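Minutes, methods subgroup
Present: GH (chair), OT, SY

1. OT presented the first of two proteins processed in the latest run. Sequence and structure tokens recorded below as shown on screen.
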Amino acid sequence: MIGSIHGRLLLAATLVLAAFLGLGAAALDQAFRDSLEQATQERLMSQVYGLLAAVMEDQQGRIQLPEILPDPRYDRPDSGLYAQVVNQTIDYQWRSASLLGRTFVFPEVTQTGVPQFQITEQGSDHFYQLSYRILWADNSDTELAYLFSVAEDAAAVASQVAAFRRTLFFWLGGASVLLLLGQGLVLRWGLWPLREVASDLEQIESGNAAQLNGNYPKELVGLTMRINSLIHSGRASQERYRNSLGDLAHSLKTPLAVLQGASGQGEESLKTVVSEQVPRMNEIVQYQLKRAAASGFTGVQQAVDVMPIVKKLLATLDKVYLEKGMTVKVSGTESAKFRGDQGDLLEVLGNLLENAYKYGHRQVAVSIMQRADALDICIEDDGPGIAPEQRKQVLRRGGRVDQHQVGQGIGLSVANEIVQLYRGELSFGDSSLGGVLLKIKIPIY
């Protein structure tokens, strides 16, 4: 259960719910008990006022309580309501008939006019007690302190608390069960899209589907899009490797056949054929290796800073072509990002910048622009340029316009294929420097 998201969320929600309901039940229980005790205190104070209302005076003007009181519980032994009035100065003590046969200790109170409420234990029973001290002036204007004390059995309050707790447990327990069932259903419904994604992935593994095609919530759209990109990238890589191996085998058949035919001829003829066919075979192998090694767009690559890579390549080319004294201008967005493999970016920019240095006379310009939907890289030189009718030719493997420069004629072809793997476009134009303009446009997904 803990190993699943549903189980973890359900356990966490259950613990939070249990803690909330437990604390809520404790708070309600305490509030109910406090309200009952407050009501008991007010009721006992009312009993004191009732005793004061029933007070009679003797010949000296001192307090005397009648034999019959308004509340009949005072007249029944063990009725649960008890009272006592004491004056220690004149040794006066009155006890209600309900205290008959009981040894009851009431607390002493020294402060006049302030009721003292408490719960005490008398034997095995508990009682709520309230004591109230008053001053009474007799006929001689002598102030006598009388202590009125009343007590009530706590069993009635305890019974009410127990009944409240049973009701509280019943309703909160029922509510807890309903809430647990409800949150279980809500979690199952909320996590259903994840189960749908897992089910769709199983369909892909079994060959019944080509990609994730479900109607997923917006929180999962980014995830499913990247999973589909990974699936497509994996299939494209597999297809690319398969095609590259097939092309390699097919391309090497002719040079091998030529070498085999030349093996039976003279030594000079064999040397000539070998010198022609070995570079051709090396060119084929290099092209197919670079073509197969490209990663392509997968949707989950980290962003690569473009400007540092461009400057690093330019620093290297400045050293290689030091004798040409090239002037290079770099402009554009310093924070431009390429979402893809760094090796692919190095391969593309390395080939294009090397061509600009190789065919340019004195000037090279590089512009990098990061837009909301695409990354644009423009490379210009002041070389002889490429005629419009020849531009498609140079993008084919081995296609070269200038046969005097050293190279195999595969750089632009490899760069073009890598750009296409990222759903981009490599295009030609006329440079403001007088040579060729190469523009790379790679969309941002």
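2. SY then presented the second protein from the same run.
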Amino acid sequence: MYEREVKERIKKINDTFKVLVVIGPREVGKTTLLESVMPENMTKISLKDEILRREAKENPKIFLDSYPAPLFIDEVQYAPELFQYIKMKVDKDKTRGQYWLSGSQLFDLMKNVTESLADRAGIVKMNSFTYSEIMRNTKKEAFNPDNLKQRKYIDVNEIFERIFNGGMPELYDIENMDRNDFYYSYIDKYIEKDIKKIGNVEAFKKFMKAVAIRTGTNLNYSDIANDVGVSVNTIKDWFSILVSIGLVYLLEPYSSNKIKRLTHMPKIIFMDLGLACYLANWESARALQLSNLSDNFFESYVISELIKSYENKGIHLEISHFRNKETEEIDLIIFKNNTLYPLVIKKTANPRKDMIKSFKHLEKTNMKIGNGGIICLYDKLMKIDEKNYIIPISSVIN
């Protein structure tokens, strides 16, 4: 079994909150990890079981009386009726770690947690494996532009193998698991269990493919609607589904009233690039690497790795991207400590100083500008100028 970076957070939250909530897409290892660390006196039940699910929905009070704390309820989103009664239970008892709740429908689950368990629940977001988890380096520090470090070089072929294969735990835990079989089944599971209300299943699958091909690009609802053959409003609704179940992250545009002519569209980031590669019909890592979409997939991979790494450590990451009407771009802006850290992400081993010329636009904000640079395939961490660096991808993900 692969170690998970988020394990220590789960233990800490169990010791400090009455309720632990673990959310994330299907098949990212939520249940496996929780089973491996749950206390010996804790009971685990899954609402995948139709009989248990019906009992929980129809008689939530009797259900919780029948299964006293400490209790781990898997797929809890299937019985939202439980939340109010869990609140009543934990309000009578100061014990920490009474209930563990996990689920894959992020929006529905978080809505119930916010409404019923505010201040009572600690929340952990899980994703598919990061690069460092695959390499069994779970003690890795989160990327910090103020403390850049040289790491072991990762060549372009390995990076694209990681992009192509993705980070779903089952692909690594089960020997000889066929990648295509896994992703084919994975998509069917989502549509069967989490996306039942969409109606037009074939159009939704076409939509998922259209989104995968556009990872790393600015969201254009009309463009996707034309490709799929449905209305713009339908595409907006379907995007909210992909975001709510954790498959896609929308990187919001940087906003400032001091900079004119900025784009207002978010950027599409697939959170597991292996799934995106499967949906986009890439047959090999090499084919993707040599394609005209390789830059977008490389950029998405770096951003998704950063998001996953920070979420594993429970660090809120405020990030955005910059693009003006003249198509000048900053691929990623990290905002922390009232400071902007600008980064461009390039699939190149030959970075040039002119790649950071768009950073000048941030000076108009009158905000403090921190260290920035070019995240790329160069093998050495080195300065470009006083505040900007050439940053090997290994210094970000390893």
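Chair's summary of item 2: The mean pLDDT is 93.
Next meeting: continue with the remaining queue.
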